[in-house]
Write a structure and sequence with these properties.
Blueprint: H1 2-70, H2 74-81, H3 88-102, E1 104-106, E2 113-117, E3 120-121, H4 124-127, H5 140-146, E4 148-149, H6 150-162, E5 165-167, H7 170-173, E6 184-186, E7 190-197, E8 213-216, E9 222-227, E10 233-236, H8 240-250, E11 262-265, H9 278-282, H10 288-296, H11 302-318, E12 322-325, H12 338-351, H13 353-356, E13 361-363, H14 380-387, E14 392-396, E15 404-405, E16 410-416, H15 419-427, H16 439-442, H17 459-464, H18 472-481, H19 485-494, H20 497-507, H21 510-519, H22 524-534, H23 536-543
Parallel strand pairs: 2-7, 2-16, 3-4, 5-7, 7-11, 11-12, 13-14, 14-16
Antiparallel strand pairs: 1-6, 8-9, 9-10, 15-16
Helix pairs in contact: 1-2, 2-3, 5-15, 6-8, 12-14, 19-23, 21-22
The structure holds zinc ion.
Length: 547
């Protein structure tokens, strides 16, 4: 029994071991298959994820390229997609950009018009106040003539957009070495330059239904602070900067390469609504408005004020806005002696430049230029401003095309899109705005149309109080300006003769200009418009004289 049992046991052990080995082999195979399967799935997932990620990267690049292309920067759009050239969507896009680029034409700087606005009136009942002994108050005529309302501004943008206008940067027209720019736009589009004057929110604007300062929202974007009639503080798009920013966000093809406007700043009441001038710090030679303001703000901290203003200025520049000098004291650069211009320029550099940075653009206050075009480059004032780094010079000129590129300077007249100009178009048959918009489509129904309020002789102003709602330095400037004859002279000459012929020869597009003039002489109502358009530049100078 014993001997028989052993082999049986051995046999059992052997088959058990075989079974065990087989089991192990099977298990091993199973795990290998499982491992391979896992690798396959993981590999597929990895490849799929990688592909998805790559697709996301490519489509994000396409989105970015589209944003550049919609603002006519086809070269940048194509360079953004260069490394993904094998992708079929990218190929389609590259073809699209290339086709659009070939459909553009070069824009001559001489064919570009330049328009400007002041701070916008949010509440016409306060801005154009019709209360007071004479039917309105002292500030009403000035606000009627120089200001545009928020509704009018929005309507003007819409009309200009519909007519194919595209906003370009002044420096896109000409670089600092005076080489003409290389703007290219689709054949159906027209370029224009925009500037904003006096964005300081002067004390004289208080309680006139305009914004009171520019501030930054939680996305670091410029918006306005605005006080309602009841004194409620609001923030939002209550002036040209955030309104234009918003319009371009909604209509990106309104801006060439992301261009915005140029903000022309004085310094005597600070900048952008911040009381940054050293007068407020030192409390020396304060005028009544400044005294009142400091009394109302006992916690005023000048350093903090400057810091805030610098932050806003930085954000504006980041968003594509530029700054220009508008002279520190809103002086008449033509009438002020050279020494006065030098003192004023030094003040701008000491008090405004630390806030907004250096600029080589000067936009003359009152629209008043420094010299006649034929002696521009040889005048002492030009030589001085040039030595101070200024290269871009702008006055006010109602005509459409006024660009001049000299050997060492760029010069452009600007068109006031304000109440005065709109009144002339609506009631006196002026055709000076016809290329930009239909005044009947944009005129704010809350804007008064009393003729006296748009009378440039200043009778309406004098009959009310005799003081413009201006700060003392401004009033001083105005009273020192005396008669407007020299003003007219400097204005009309600055935009005519040689500058004209030069700009026209460079643009070859004087026809629209001469058309606007000649067409205005054909009927009785037209002859009125001709006289107004004939004296456009001097009118403009006067109409913009206070702000
Ligand atoms: Zn001004």
């Amino acid at each position: 029994m014993k001997g028989r049992r052993v082999p049986l046991k051995n046999n059992n052990t052997k088959s058990g071991k075989r079974k065990k080995r087989k089991k192990i082999v099977l298990k091993k195979r199973f795990f290998i298959i499982l491992f391979l399967l896992f690798c396959l799935i993981a590999g597929s997932i990895f490849a799929f994820t990688r592909h998805q990620k790559q697709e996301r990267i490519i489509h994000a690049a396409i989105d970015k390229a589209d944003q550049a292309a919609v603002q006519y920067d086809y070269d940048r759009a194509m360079s953004l997609l260069k490394e993904y050239g094998d992708h079929k969507d990218v190929q389609k896009k590259l073809d699209e950009y290339s086709e659009k680029k070939s459909d553009t034409r070069k824009i001559s700087p001489g064919s570009v018009t330049h328009v400007f606005f002041h701070s916008l009136v949010v509440d016409p009942t306060r801005g154009f106040s019709l209360t007071g002994k004479s039917g309105w108050d002292a500030g009403t005529p000035g606000f009627c003539q120089w200001m545009t309302t928020v509704n009018e501004f929005n309507a003007i943008l819409e009309e200009m957009y519909d007519r194919g206008y595209v906003l370009v940067d002044i420096k896109d027209l000409c670089d600092k070495d005076m080489n003409p720019g290389t703007i290219r736009l689709p054949k159906s589009k027209k370029a224009f330059v925009l500037s904003l004057d006096d964005l300081s929110y002067y004390h004289s604007y208080d309680n006139r239904g305009t914004a009171s300062k520019l501030i930054l929202n939680n996305k670091n974007k410029p918006v306005c602070e605005y006080y309602t009639k009841e004194g409620t503080r609001k923030t939002g798009a209550y002036d040209a900067v955030p309104l234009l920013d918003r319009f371009i966000r909604e209509h990106p093809d309104f801006s060439y390469h992301g261009a915005k406007g140029t903000i022309a700043l004085t310094g005597y009441n600070g900048v952008l609504g911040y009381r940054t001038d050293t007068t407020y710090r030192d409390e020396t030679s304060l005028d009544e408005d400044q005294k009142k303001w400091l009394e109302a703000h006992p916690d005023f901290d000048w350093e903090k004020e400057c810091k805030e203003a610098r932050k806003v200025a930085k954000a504006l520049k980041k968003d594509g806005w530029r700054f220009a000098s508008h002279t520190w004291g809103h002086i008449r650069a033509g009438q002020t002696p050279l020494e006065g211009l030098q003192r004023d320029t030094e003040k701008w550099k000491e008090r405004v430049e630390p806030i907004v940075g250096k600029t080589d653009i000067i936009i003359f206050a009152h629209g008043e230029d420094i010299a006649l075009p034929e002696v521009y480059a040889t005048s002492d004032k030009f030589k001085y401003l040039s030595s101070e780094g200024y290269r871009y010079f702008c006055n006010v000129d109602g005509r459409r095309l006024t660009t001049v590129i000299g050997d060492s300077y760029f010069h452009q007249g600007r068109r006031n899109l304000d109440g005065y100009r709109m009144y002339q178009a609506k009631y006196n048959g002026s055709s000076m705005l016809d290329d930009l918009f239909d005044v009947n489509e944009v005129w704010d129904k809350n804007r008064p149309s009393n003729e006296e309020l748009y009378d440039l002789s200043g009778k309406s102003q004098k009959s009310t109080t005799g003081t413009q709602s201006q700060t003392s330095s401004d009033t001083k400037n105005q009273s020192s300006s005396g008669s407007s004859s020299s003003d007219n002279k400097s204005q009309s000459s600055s935009g005519s003769s040689s500058s004209d012929s030069k700009s026209q020869s460079s643009s070859g597009s004087s026809s629209s200009d001469s058309k606007s003039q000649s067409s205005s002489g054909s009927s009785s109502s037209d002859s009125k418009s001709q006289s107004s358009s004939g004296s456009s530049s001097s009118d403009t100078a006067k109409s913009s004289s206070a702000t």
